[in-house]
C-alpha cells in the first residue's frame, strides 16, 4: 500500500496555517456566491415565483398526512363521525392533486426558464468571446473554450431548474411538519430532530473545502484525459509510422488511470458520509427512533399513546424530503464551480472599442501613407512584473517586405501579435497610417491587418467555406488567384470535390498545406498589412521557395512582416529586424547585417552550419 505524502515546502515558500486556509475558503465561498448571484440575476425573479409555487405545493404535501392523522383520531374515538372522516379524506385527496399540479407547473416552468437562460447565456458568452483579445484564445485549447460554452453552461442546469426549488421544498416540508409535531408533543419532537442534526453535519462535511479540492483535481484529470484522447487519435498514424504506438498509448492510458484514481479519491470520502446521512433519515431508522422514544414516553406517562401516531405517520417522511439535497450536493458544487469560471470569463478584460473615424481623422498636413506601420516606444509583458518587449521603435513602410529574426524566446511572435492587437501594449503606441490601432474597431482593424500564425485554425466545412471567411463575396476566379499565389491550388484540385471538398471528410491536409490554405485566405482578404509568423515553417522543400516568391510578388502596396528562423529564406527581403531579449538590437538588409558581425551574423553562421550538416547527410 502506498501513502501519498505532501512534498515539503520549497525554500522561502510560506505554508498557509489553519486561519489562512479558512480565510481562503471563506473568500472562495464569497466569490462563488457572488458569481451565482450575478450569473443567475436574469432569472432570479422568475425562480422566486416558481419557488413560491413549490412552497405552496410542499404545504399541500404535508397537510394531507395531518388530515389522515385527524381521521385516524376520529376512527379511534368512542363515537365515530364517519362523515367527518370522509370529508377529511376527500380534502386530503384534493390537496394531493393540487400539490401534483403545482409541482408539475413549477418544474415545467423552471425547465423552460433554464432552456431560455442557457440559450441567452451562450449567446452572451459567444458575443463576449468576439471582444476579448485574440491572445486569450492562444492561451487555451479548443476543448477549454468548448467547456465554457457547453459544459459549464450545461452544469448550471441544476442551479436554475432544480437547486432553489429543491431547497425550498426540502426546507418547507420539515418546517411545517415540525411546527405541527411541536403542537402535539415538544419532547418527542426534539428526539425527532436528532437525525436531522446528524444529516446537516454530514452535508456540511460533504461540502467542505477538501471536497472542492478533490473535485478540482478530478476536473483537471478529466481535461487531461480529453486532451490525451484527441492527441492519441489525431497522431496515431504518425506514432505508428515511427513504431511509437506503445508510447502514445501509454500516455493515453496514464491519463485514464489518473482520472480513475482522481474519481476514486473524490467519491470514496463522499460516499461514506452520504451513506451515513441517508441511513439516519431513512424511514426505518426514524420509525425505530420514534417507537423507542414513544414507548419510553408512554411508560413514563408524559405522552398519550395516541399522540405517538402523528410521529409515525408524519415524522417518517421528515428525512426523506431532505435526501434530495444530499443527492444534489455534487451537482450543486459542480454548478458553483462552473458559475465561478463563467463569471471569471465575463469579467475578462476586453479590447477597448475603437473611436469613430471622424474623431481620429489625421489632418491633411500630417497625412501619412495608409499602410505605414510604426511601433513607438512599445513595452509589453504577459505579466505586469515581467516585460517581454522593451522600448521597441520601428517603422514598416508600404510595399516592403520586412523580416523579424532573433533567438528563440526573443519576443518575435509576441511583437507580431501586437500588430493585429492580440494584446494591447503596456506603454507606447502602434499606429497604422498615423492612427493608433486602439482607435480602430475590431472589424476595421482586421480589414486592415491580415495574419497567418503557426497555429493554423480551419473551420469545419469545405475548402471554399474556409476561403470565403476572408471575403464572403469572392468569386471563383478570386479564390483561384489566392490559392495559386499560396501554391495550394493544384493540391485543392487533386481533392475528390476540389474546392467543395470538406475538411476532415474528403479533404485531409498536412500542416504545410493547411498553412498555405490559411495564407490564401489571408491574401484573399487583400489587407494592406500582412503579418506572417513562420510562414513556411511547415512547407515542404518543393513549395517553400514558391511560397516565398509568391509572397514577394504580392507585397506591392502592402506592408508585410515575416517572422522566420530559417535565415536563408529571407535574404532577399527589404529589411531585417533583429530582436534579442525583447530589444531591437539590429536592423538593415542581409548584406549589411552580415558584414556588421553582430547577432545576425552569429545567427547566419549557425544557419549555414546547420544547412551544411543537412547537405552532408543527403550525399
Automatic annotation (TrEMBL):
Keyword Magnesium included in the entry's annotation: no
Molecular function GO terms recorded: ATP binding
InterPro entries (UniProt xref): AAA+_ATPase, ABC1_TM_dom, ABC1_TM_sf, ABC_transporter-like_ATP-bd, ABC_transporter-like_CS, P-loop_NTPase, Type_1_exporter
Major localisation: membrane
Domain ABC transmembrane type-1: 49-334
Residue intervals passing through the bilayer: 39-68, 88-113, 165-182, 188-207, 275-296, 308-327
Signal peptide positions (record): none
Residue ranges of every copy of the ABC transporter domain listed in the record: 373-606
Membrane topology, record value: Multi-pass membrane protein
Keywords: ATP-binding, Cell inner membrane, Cell membrane, Membrane, Nucleotide-binding, Translocase, Transmembrane, Transmembrane helix
Composition bias type Pro residues, residue spans: 1-10
Chain spans, region Disordered: 1-25
Subcellular location per the Swiss-Prot or TrEMBL entry: Cell inner membrane
Keyword field contains Mitochondrion: no
Pfam family for this entry, one: ABC_tran
Family from the record: Belongs to the ABC transporter superfamily. Siderophore-Fe(3+) uptake transporter (SIUT) (TC 3.A.1.21) family.
Protein's name according to its UniProt entry: ABC transporter ATP-binding protein
